[in-house]
Amino acid sequence: MNYKEITEKIRERARELLATKKVGVIIGWAQGSTPQKTHPVFITNPDDVEQLVWNKFCYNNLSEYLNRQEIRAYGRMGIISKGCDNKAIVGLLQEFQIEEKDIYIIGVVCEGMGEPEPLDKCRFCDVHTPVLYDELIGEQVDIQPEEGHFADVEKIEQMSREERWEFWQKEFEKCIRCYACRQVCPLCHCRRCIVDKNQPQWIDLSSHPRGNFAWNFIRAFHLAGRCIECGECERACPMNIPLMLINKKLIKDVQELYEYRAGYDPKAVPPISTWREADDESFII
Amino acid sequence: MTRTLYTPELCEIIEIRDETPDTRTFRLRFVDEEKQKNFTFTPGQFGLYSVFGEGESTFCIASPPTWKEYFECCFRVVGRVTKALRLLDVGSVIGFRGPYGIGFPLESWEGKNLLFIAGGIGLPPLRTVIWTILDPGYRQKYGEVTVVYGARSVSDLVYKPELKQWEERSDMKLIKTVDPGGETPDWDGKIGFVPTVLEEAKPSSNNTIALICGPPIMIKFTLPVLSSLGFELKNVYTTLENRMKCGLGKCGRCNVGDFYVCKEGPVITAERLKSLPPEY
Amino acid sequence: MIIQKDKLFALLEKLKSGGKRIIAPTKRENILLFSEIGSTDEIIQDYINTRLSLKGFFLPRSEPILEFRIHQKNVEYTTVLEENIKPTVVFGVRPCDAGSLPIMDKVYTWDYIDEYWVKRRESTIIIAVSCLDCDEACFCTSLGLDPGSTKGSDILLTPVGNDTFLVEIASDKGKKLVEDNAELFAEGDADKDSILAPVRQKLGKKFDLSSIQPWLQENFFHKFWEQNTLYCIGCGVCTFVCPTCHCFDIVDEGTVSGGKRMKLWDACQFRTFTIHASGHNPRARQDERHRQRIEHKFNYYPKKFGDTLCVGCGRCVRYCPVDLSILRILTMISQLSQTGSQTSRAEEK
Where are the domains of chain C? Predict the structure, then answer.
């Protein structure tokens, strides 16, 4: 199926699901302000489904909206879901942020986003067909992930401690603390983020080195074993900070230490949420 | 020392009173005696009170300008700054910026009766007006003075010793009430919600200004009662409580529509309030 | 009057060696930003606009305004305010960004003077450069500005080809700068209008500004806001990249023995912006917070200060992570105002 056919099918299914009241809202993408952009859209009226599109620019991870009160108020949420976004739904289910009965997933087979070049994450994607769905649009594709998934991380690992420090200092210096990285992240779902907690003020709000390091590291640590690699934080960052380098480092460590990859199995217990008697505790003492 | 519009003055806490289990009054005096001597304000104006290291918080000046030796604020312990304020003792110093905003137009009310309606911690912004007009220099300028004050329970009433004084005075009338279930065996006031008690009291709207301050739910149900008593919205005043940082019209936080609470408020007529978006 | 590019750079070098700080568009970690230059070689000249506006040089992302030390019940504090700000020249400012400065002056001098803003403004000279190109996010012409407008500039340069700039003096500061360095400037003229004609045509007029404020005044409760702005994710990108968004926070940081009171950029799009300590939030929904941004820029600010709080630089359109384009919102409002659709307060929710 081509993009046009998939778009038609999405619209058809959205119309049907809304008309039969199976869902109260369809979360999808609509044509954006330029041909190279789309924006998220919430369709509640079957007559509005023509707004929905599927193309190479459906970047946004719509799973971000599943946890928003204003959207939940529409009723059961139908969501158009490509593979990487889909992994976030797995995470949200694992962490009891949503229940299966609250959502209806229209999975879409995705051949990769971005044009002319696919996004970096798409080159290493192994979920062109979503993991979890109530129905699937598109035919399964056989696109193997490229080699060298962690090559960029390994480059940083090979740096000396001093070089790494200098690298990150330069990157974090740019941070303006707009929190776009947090706001686009479907797994940053804390009702009150630690940076917004002020009794005590755990993280300085100023964008001096101390505040910026604290914020960027804690954001990443909170995603250890949870980040599903949708890359939205890095894409959203207005200052081009390579946030996925940190996230991928944690993904790599969790994979090596616990043989766990987030976002593939809603029944799996995430390693950072569990505990074994034999776990190494030497780092605490 | 270099000063900017954000530089506070130091004030010493000279007395602390607990009004309710979570509400506290500070009596404050500027460390700089000159500042204290020259400190003037209009009832209804506010200040930004700061605990160094924790930040600033906005409260009205709760005492009348006729008290020259000190001034007071009253706060509920709920956020970062108020929790820090609560840990301070007599003799500690805090920062103060103000007075800011526009207070009540007392002069334009001369010759009129005044009806005060307050709920819970809504009394402090009206108390500054009440004590001002009770001052011998002011009292004869105004007609009848009536105060209707209620709280959830007896222990939630603030300024209890002053309520007693007001009850005993012959130049004003106090009607005090607590919500049903909030009374104690020795409670000698009314039992009922403020709007209901006000309706029963039937104060005249003739030549009268109403001042109302309290939780939004109380204000919501009291305004229709005032209307039924014949009050015009332009004669009903309240104060807004939007969150502020600068208090000076710069930081862009406190606006309700195009009304900057810090600069054009916090005092506002119900008539103006009705024309604004409900973002308060 | 004209100036050759080599003479212009010589001027910047001369001002620099005379003790002035020179700010210009440079590449910093792969993004184009205004920053202090060590040499004119660092200046980037081929650009639509910088990632961040130059507001950070007048209203920094974060800056201390007070320092304090605490000993038991004693507090000592000092105001932090740079007394002798290094005279600064900002080169390469686009007319939209230059135009934002006089607009912001109004709020920062509204009855109370914000010395931080005003002192930096006084010690800064703006050398703007007209735009010969734009992208689809630019919309200055829809706001009464122009790729060659002099508003807010001290000197405006328009590239006229052959490494030559047409020089327009736009203020007394600019006049003095030219007079003090007269040897670098030359007699000459060029047809600015014909040079700017192609970019003006490309920009066009994207909406009718005069229709926006009346519509906003009538349609606070319109379904439009929920339908078109609820997908805002509530980050601070639009406000932080914006040259006219000026809201800030004041927070204390430090330890029990001392610290600093900081003035920080803040954003009306953050949930925490208006939330009370009690948990009550006057703007509880994201579409309400987004409406505030539009209302502030196109209704409240014009009402209070006579200026629209937007210069059409397009940054928020370019960098919004969910493509919630203000240009699209304004275009839709402009269209709606012609159809006269509105929802009254009574129909709300």
Answer: 2-61+82-203, 209-249+267-338
